[in-house]
Every structure is written in C-alpha cells, then in structure tokens.
C-alpha cells in the first residue's frame, strides 16, 4: 500500500492541492497536470498507478477524450502500454450541465465516475479500491 504514483489531471489548482494533500498524507506520490494534453504527456513520463481525471477543462468533454485516448484498443496506439491504468473521473459535470454519464466500456472507458465535491475519506476509499484491481 501507498507509495503508488497517482496522476491528477484537472484545471482547478485548488482541487489539485486538496487532492495532493489528502493522498500524500497516506503515502501516495501525487503528480498533476492542468490539461488533457499535459496529462497525456505525464502519463508517458511517470507511468502512474492511477489517474484521477476531470472532464470539464479547456472544453466541456476534454477528460472524456483523454480517457478514450488512453483506452484506445489499437495495439499500435501510443498509449497502448498505459491502457490498464485505472481511471477515476472526478467531475462536477452532472451539477453544471444536463449531461449524464456513467462508466461504459465503449463510450466512457473508465473504472469509476465520481461527482465533485468528494470528501477526503471517500476519495481515499475509492483510490484504495481502484489500486487493488
């Protein structure tokens, strides 16, 4: 347990800092990216054990595009080596838009979909569960 690398991809610096403090207190190494493009680069650099991903960043569905890139089934995809990294969507999209989403292998290939705000204890439970997979 702990010492696993977690990449938080979110454009909200306050949320990143709160998540960082919560996870580092439990011994996780936390890395961050402020956009989907930066996040995809960091995935290659650090090969995280878990990705916590926002949906609405530069544009409303940026996080979905990141998830689809990472889970691209093409074995020649530049992200093929990272396909099995668990992805948790942590977003406020349901409270800010009428759109509704849940994990779906084809359209939203993530392991968990969680609404912001999320209490620290609940975040830690979800992270531990996903890292056990």
Strand proportion: 15-25%
Quaternary structure annotation: single chain
Tell me the name of the CATH homologous superfamily: Response regulator
Binned, the helix content reads 25-40%
The strands making up the biggest β-sheet line up spatially as 2-1-3-4-5
Largest beta-sheet details = 5 strands, parallel
Please identify the structural class as seen in this structure: alpha/beta
- Low-pLDDT segments, ≥5 res: none
Tally of DSSP helical segments: 5
Task: Tell me the total number of β-strands.
Answer: 5
Terminal Cα separation, in Å? 13 Å
Gyration radius from CA atoms, angstroms: 14 Å
Q: What is the CATH-assigned architecture?
A: 3-Layer(aba) Sandwich
CATH class: Alpha Beta
CATH topology: Rossmann fold
Q: How confident is the prediction overall: mean pLDDT?
A: 87
Q: In sequence order, what are the helices and strands, one letter per element? A: EHEHEHEHEH
Shape: globular
Number of domains: 1
């Amino acid at each position: 347990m702990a010492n696993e690398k977690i990449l938080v991809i979110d454009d909200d610096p306050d949320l990143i800092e709160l998540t960082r403090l919560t996870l580092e207190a439990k011994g996780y190494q936390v890395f961050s990216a402020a956009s989907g493009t930066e996040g995809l680069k960091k995935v290659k650099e650090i090969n995280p054990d878990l990705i916590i991903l926002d949906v609405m960043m530069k544009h409303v569905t940026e996080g979905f595009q990141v998830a689809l890139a990472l889970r691209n089934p093409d074995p020649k995809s530049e992200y093929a080596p990272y396909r099995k990294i668990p992805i948790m969507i942590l977003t406020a999209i349901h409270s800010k838009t009428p759109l509704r989403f849940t994990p779906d292998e084809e359209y939203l290939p993530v392991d968990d979909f969680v609404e912001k705000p999320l209490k620290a204890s609940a975040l830690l439970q979800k992270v531990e569960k996903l890292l056990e997979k």
